C-alpha cells in the first residue's frame, strides 16, 4: 500500500540552527518510493540535509513508502543540528491487508451438439489480505446438461443454478478452481454466468462466458431411412 508521511521540522528557539539533518528510519517491511526536498535513501534511512533552520520557522518534508505487510508499522525520525541539538519523533500506523479477488473462466468457444466440454472457473486472490466467506454461484445454460462438477465445497442445485457452500478463507496469493463438465444438447448461442460474493466485496463479482453450440442431435435428425 503506498503511504505518504509528512515530517515537520520546527525551530522554536530564538536563534538559527545550523547544519540541520533529518533521518527517517525505513520501517521493516517498507519500500522507499520517493521523498521531497532532495531526500535520499542511504543504509535503510531517508536522509535530508537542510542546512540552516531560522528561528520560529517550520519545514515540512514528505516521504512516500510502499507498505507490504499487515500490522503495526512504526516510522521513526531523528533531526540533528550543530551544538548537539537532537529531536526524535515516531508515528505508529496499523495497516490491514486488502483482498483482491479476480474471476476467470476458460472454455471452448464452440461446442457441437452431443459433444462434451469443460468450463474451468478460477477464483484468485491477488491482494495482500485474506478474502473471507466466498460463495460462488454458477448458472449453466439450458441448452447444456451438467455431467459432473468439482469445487472446494459442496454445491446445491436448483434447475440450472448451482450454489457452492461458502468457503471460509482464500488467503492472499492463493486460488481455487471450480470445474463443470457439460454436454451440449441443443444448438444456439449460450452464456455461462458466474457470480461471486465475499465479505470484502460491496457488490458481487459477475462474469459471463459465451459459447456457440452448433449442429443437430441424432435424436432430432432421426434414424437413417426413417
What this model shows, in words?
- The chain has 226 residues and is mostly beta strands.
- It folds into two domains: 94 residues, Immunoglobulins (Immunoglobulin-like), CATH 2.60.40.10; 117 residues, Immunoglobulin-like.
- Helices cover 2% and strands 65% of the residues.
- It has one helix and 19 strands.
- Strands 10, 12, 14, 15, 16, 18 and 19 form a seven-stranded mixed sheet that branches. It has a five-stranded antiparallel sheet with strand order 4-5-2-7-8, with no helix packed on it. Strands 9-11-17-13 form a four-stranded antiparallel sheet, with no helix packed on it.
- A hairpin with a 2-residue loop joins β14 and β15.
- The model has no long low-confidence stretch (mean pLDDT 91).
Mean pLDDT: 91
Biggest sheet architecture: 7 strands, mixed
Helix count equals 1
Indicate the overall shape. Answer: rod-shaped
Short description:
By secondary structure, the protein is an all-beta fold. The protein has one helix at residues 218-221; strands at residues 2-11, 17-25, 30-35, 40-42, 45-53, 57-67, 71-81, 85-95, 101-106, 110-112, 116-125, 131-139, 144-150, 155-158, 161-164, 167-170, 175-184, 188-197, 205-214.
Give the helix/strand layout:
Blueprint: E1 2-11, E2 17-25, E3 30-35, E4 40-42, E5 45-53, E6 57-67, E7 71-81, E8 85-95, E9 101-106, E10 110-112, E11 116-125, E12 131-139, E13 144-150, E14 155-158, E15 161-164, E16 167-170, E17 175-184, E18 188-197, E19 205-214, H1 218-221
Parallel strand pairs: 10-19
Antiparallel strand pairs: 1-6, 2-5, 2-7, 3-6, 4-5, 7-8, 9-11, 11-17, 12-15, 12-16, 12-18, 13-17, 14-15, 18-19
Amino acid at each position: 500500500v503506498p503511504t505518504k508521511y509528512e515530517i515537520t521540522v520546527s525551530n522554536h528557539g530564538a536563534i538559527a540552527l545550523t547544519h540541520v539533518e533529518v533521518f527517517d528510519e525505513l520501517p521493516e517491511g517498507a519500500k522507499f518510493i520517493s521523498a521531497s526536498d532532495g531526500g535520499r535513501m542511504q543504509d535503510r534511512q531517508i536522509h535530508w540535509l537542510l542546512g540552516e533552520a531560522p528561528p520560529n520557522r517550520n519545514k515540512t518534508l514528505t516521504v512516500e513508502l510502499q507498505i507490504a505487510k499487515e500490522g503495526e508499522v512504526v516510522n521513526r525520525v531523528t533531526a540533528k543540528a550543530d551544538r548537539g541539538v537532537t529531536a526524535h519523533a515516531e508515528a505508529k500506523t496499523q495497516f490491514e491487508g486488502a483482498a483482491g479477488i479476480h474471476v476467470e473462466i476458460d472454455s471452448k468457444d464452440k461446442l457441437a451438439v452431443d459433444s462434451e466440454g469443460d468450463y474451468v472457473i478460477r477464483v484468485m486472490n491477488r491482494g495482500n489480505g485474506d478474502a473471507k466467506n466466498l460463495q460462488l454461484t454458477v448458472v449453466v445454460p439450458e441448452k447444456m446438461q451438467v455431467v459432473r462438477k468439482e469445487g472446494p465445497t459442496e454445491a446445491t442445485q436448483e434447475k440450472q443454478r448451482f450454489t457452492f457452500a461458502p468457503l471460509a478463507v482464500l488467503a492472499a496469493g492463493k486460488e481455487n478452481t471450480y470445474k463443470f463438465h457439460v454436454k451440449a444438447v441443443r444448438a444456439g448461442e449460450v452464456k455461462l454466468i458466474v457470480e461471486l460474493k465475499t465479505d470484502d466485496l460491496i457488490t458481487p463479482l459477475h462474469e459471463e462466458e459465451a459459447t456457440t453450440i452448433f449442429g443437430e442431435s441424432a435424436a432430432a435428425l432421426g434414424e437413417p431411412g426413417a
